[in-house]
Each structure stands twice: as structure tokens, then as C-alpha cells.
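A common beginner's mistake is to predict each chain separately and then try to dock the pieces by hand. The better habit, illustrated here, is to supply every component at once so that their relative placement is modeled jointly.
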Amino acid sequence: MFFHIVLERNMQLHPRHFGRNLREHIISKLMKDVEGTCSGRHGFVVAITSVENIGKGLIRDGTGFVTFPVKYQCVVFRPFKGEILEAVVSMVNKMGFFAEAGPVQIFVSNHLIPDDMEFQSGDMPNYTTSDGSVKIQKDSEVRLKIIGTRVDATEIFCIGTIKDDFLGVINDPTTI
Amino acid sequence: MSGEEEENAAELKIGDEFLKAKCLMNCEVAIILDHKYEQLQQTSDDPMNQVSQVFEKSLQYVKRFSRYKNPDAVRQVREILSRYQLAEFELCVLGNLCPETVEEAIAMVPSIKTRGRAHDDEAIEKMLNDLSLIKKFE
Amino acid sequence: MSSIEPFNRLVKLVARAFYDDITTKGDNQPKSGRSDNRGIAVVVLDALTRRQWVREEDLAKDLKLHSKQLRRTLRFLEEEKLVARDHRKETAKGAKIYSAAVAATADGQPFAKEGEEKIKLHTHSYCSLDYAQIYDVVRYRIHRMRKKLKDELECKNTVQEYICPNCQRRYNALDALRLVSLEDDSFHCENCNGELVAESDKLAAQEGGDGDDNARRRRREKLKDLLQKLEVQLKPLMEQINRVKDLDVPEFGTLQAWEARASAAGRAANGDSSSNDPNKSSQGYGGTPMPFLGDTKVEVAFSGAEGKQVDVKSETDSTPQKVLPPWMIKQGMNLTKEQRGEVKQESKMDGSSATGGLSDDKKSTVEDDKASLQDEYIRAYYAALLKKQQELDEAAKNQQESSNTPISDGLSGASSNRQVGMKSKREEVEGDDDVDWEEAPVAGTTSESFKVHDLNVEAEASAEDEDDIDWEEG
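With all components supplied together, the output reads:
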């Protein structure tokens, strides 16, 4: 799920940036430092939308650097266990399939794919029902439920299931 | 035994910080990111180079999975869903997935049927109807 | 004090349910024959239910265990959050404060002869049961066991596990990204590049299951079975947990607080008449008066002079549930006769074993039927024990008086009382035996449940257990 939240960060700035463009410098450095990062707590920082407040700078002892506390609004993407979302299948193999929902990757193991879907190898590996009516292959859109997340310093990885009611390939004519 | 505080979006256990935060539907994110991307285009020749991979992937994703494209419709969706005493998170799941039946809606957002909340099937049905109307007239 | 027995019973049940097969041997050492020390955790936990804070050296002596072995077990139990430990460097005097506390809890006369004090510091370790934490940990553990089985049963929220057939390394679905290979369709071991097998597939193959459906159905049945077994086998434990739910948790506090309290209580119980008291009174570590002085209630175990002991007993007798089984009465009488005849104050060992007897009795009444089954056997065993004891009695009678202060004796290193020390130790060991015997039915019912427990913790399991584990985790 995407959220619009307020975060805080202490920005250290070299004295050469001081002057009329101080604020711009701080903001552009903030964007460079923060956008695209991922933390276990807040998820992926997609985009900074505004800077709410830049606090008074504090000169660091021994160096000329000044630390500014900055409050900013940003869009983050944070997957949750139990969350249901839509994703695009990126790879299919006999162990299951991988899908992407924005910045996050989700693995669905073959045990969590409905029992009536079988793996078919070939150029375009896929999972298909016996009557061929439903097929999961690369670029398919699926609705899945996240059942587990693994968080490390720079990555969040999820595992999901499509073995439940109203999950699976999306039957929306507009998206096929 | 309920000592265990495990994250579970189905029970709206997403942590206080996110429970109180403003959630965004995919279509809203699309508008925000598009706007930001346009700004970048004005200042840079190669805006795709300026943005992170996270930004790029998110933009692709929300464009692909936005149920409503028109900003007015997006505004209306939030406006209508806001009448139903939903948590931000629930509101956005419904807005993103647009379930068609009451049963589906409950499967997508099990927390709307938890005890102590005044969502009977009728109310949910009405809510889904309102949503589909917006879609129709978009 | 009133609540400690139910909690002790809880500890004993937990010990038998979950720590039955724990061995502190390293994996590479053979687990057979004489080196097999499985069950040691049960012995240690049982022993701790009869003590409060205890110096680990003393406990090792009492249990006739090598102190290293005991320490290893205690470290394990500490990690399991059952046991609180404290280590401190102390002088001979520091050790004496503890001894005084022990003496007070045993209601013996504190042995407070101030010897010459060596400045040399020794690190001593102490341990005690942490009842509050045990209660929480056990509930959590059972909760996790149930949850895991139920999740598996519903086939929901299960994280698929993979295993490398070559090096047995295990992975799960959350590692998927690291395991994909560019060459083929499967996951590969990071270690040896072997092709990983999904856990339940392996199981299905083992069972000779061909059809996917069949395997799945069997798996479900097995899980259901497992869950049911869990409920049945843990029932006594659950009942005990519910029983202690609203009781005050016995709390010994930190070692220092306990010592201070125990000494103060001991003084209060002795009416402060003893001429020994001034020596140790109100001397904390820094010589400052202890804040606990005076107001402390006797929360200490075996404070009872004769009268109190009887009180407790009659109380227990009055409730219909708590009838003493015949073999137990024999023991109780034996002890009290011994004591009534010779001394007014109980020695520490006698006191503790008597109280231990009471607790055991309560426990055994709950499983009265089981106990009665074993009755015959135990009676025979006990007769033999009695005989042995009578032999010892003769020797004991002569020295009974000095046996009031066995611990202090040990500490001051007085060699003249050695025999007494040995005697009481012997009794202690017998006491342990006795508990083990009478617990046999409990151990019997829970003997299988360690398998269930194994599901949670990846413990080394004997080959026959493997099936269960696989089922559970697949």
C-alpha cells in the first residue's frame, strides 16, 4: 500500500552551500539521499512531495559541517502481511512464480497456487488449469495476498498466495 | 492468547504509525507521480535518468493498476468511500481492487466485518454500487 | 507462599513435556550409553523447585553433578528463559551473606562465625527459577505450537520450506530470490548448488504417494492427528496453567534483594534472640542497613517451626483433593519422627524434602488414578528406601544437631562435620529419585509430546521422530 507520510531527517551540509540557495541545496540533497531508498520500517520511499520544515542548523564540533533537521512529506510503498494487492508476473518456473507490485518483488510458491493449475514448461512457462481457461505466465496480472515479508537494510521481499477466494488471475477485460 | 503482536493487514494490524497515516490509492499515487515527473521534464532533458528505480517501477505500477484515470473521478471515489467510516487503509484497498460483490469486498477487506463495526451487507452493497457508478460515468 | 506449589507443579510438568530429551552434549559426541545425559534438565528443574536462589556449586554438589555439566544445563535453561542467574565476584564475607540467607530460609541457626576475611575475590554463580517468566514462556510456546499446526492445517500462511538433499541446508520461500538459477527452473543451494526439494514433496515421496491429491489428504490427516495429540498430551499442562492464572506469581526478586529479605525474615522468625545475630544483622554489602528490615513477611519456604509444618499439612488434608497417598505418609512420618525426637528446628535438608513431599502429594492427587497404578511399585521401592534410611538414621541421630547448619558447614570448610554433610546430601539425592519415580506417570503421558515440541525448535530428534517433524514442517 502507498502512504503519504511525514518523515524527518538530519541533513549535513558543507559550508560551501551556504547562501541564498541554501534551501534548494538542502532539498535537492534530501531527494538524492532519500528517494529510492528502502527501510524495513517505512518501506520504499518513492517520492518526496514537499518539505514541511527545515530547522535551525547546528554546527558540528570539529568540522564546519552544519546539521539541519528536515521534515518532509513523501510517498512510500510499504507491503503488509495480510494485504491483498495486484501484481504483474515477472517470472514463472516450476517452483512457483515471481511477481512485482511497484518496487516490491513477491514470490508465490507452487504450493500456494490452486491445486488445479499445473506447471507447463516451454518457451513461455506457465501455470494453466486443465481446461486451459486460466493461465498464469510472464506479464499476467494477478491479485494475490501477501503472507510473509522479509526485510533487510535495502530490500523488502514478500511471499504471497493466490490460493484463496477472489485471488488469482484478474479477469478484468480492460486489463487483458 | 493474544500476546503476539503480529502484523496482519486483514485485521488492520499495520502499526499505529501507518494506521494513522494517510493512505493513497493507486490512482492518487499516479496523479502525484505524474505531476512530479512532469516537473522534472521541464528542468531536465532526460528525466528518466533523474528518478530512482523505485520511482520508475512505482509509476509504471500505479498507471497499470489505476481503476480511475480522471482526477475528478479519483476525488469522487475518495469522497464517497469517506462516508462509510472506513479506515484509510480499508478505503484504499477497496478503491484499488474495486470488488464487485459484497462477498468479494469482505474477502478483500476482512476487517470491515469485524465486530463492533456498523457495516452490514446492505451498506457494503450500497458502497460498491456508488463506486461502480463513478466508473461508469468517468 | 501459598501459590508456590501450583507453580512448582507447572515447572515439573513443563520439564517433562518439553525438556525430557534435552541433552547438553555437543552434536558430535555420541549420545549413547553412559554419556547420555538426557533428562538432566528435568532433574535440575525439579531440584530448583525445592530451592530459591542457590549457589550453583552447592546445587552441583547436591545433585552429584559435575559443576561444568550443571552450568551447561543452567545456561541452556537460562536461554530458555526458565531460570534466572546471577554472577558476582565476592569475598568470603559476601558468600557468608548468602549463607546467612540460606540458613534463614531453612530456619536453621545462622552460622555467623566471622572468620578471617580474605580479600581474594571469587566469581560465584547463583540461579533460581523465574516463575513469572516461565508462565509467560510456556504459554507463548504452546500458542506457537498450536498456531503453526493450525496454519499448516489450513494450508494458509505457510511459508514453503526447501531442503538441499546434498548438504541438508534448509531454506524457505522468503529466500526465493537468492535461490533462482539462470540455467534451469529450480532453486539451487547456495552452499553446494544442489537442486532444492520442497519439503512436502520429499515427504510425499517418502510416503510413496504418487498423486498430488493423495499426498495432500494424507498430510492433512497427519496434521489433524498431530494437533489432536498436542491437545491431549498438553492437557495436564494447560490445566495447570489455568490453575495458576489468577495466583500471585512467586517472586524471589534479584539475588541481593532475596538475600536481604531472607536474612531479615530469618531473624524475625528466630525472634532475634540468638546471640549470633548481631554479627550479621543489618550488614548489607556496604554495611548499610537493608531497607527490607522489619516489614518483610515470611515469604520464605521452610520457615515453619514444627507447628507451622503441621498446619500446612492439616490444611492440605482438609481439602478432599489433597489426600496423602500411603507411601507419602510414610515418608512424612518418618521425617517428623526423626525430627521430633531429636531437635526442635528442622535441618534444611529435612525441611526441604518434607515440603517437597507436600508438593508432590498435591500433584499426585491430581493424577491420583495414575499414581495408584504405580502405587504398588513405589511402595516396594519405598520399603527399600526406608531400610536404607534406617541404616543411616543411626549415624544421623548422633550428629543431627550439627546437621542443622549443613550449608554453613560446607562453606566454612569445617571438616569435622563432613559426615553429616554427606548424609544430608545423600538424602537429597534420594529425594530426587523419589520425585522421579512418582512422576513416572506424568513422564509417561508426556513422553511423546517432545516430538510436538520438536516441531518448533529444531532439536536433534531420534530417527523415529523424523516422520513427525517432516509432516509438520513440510
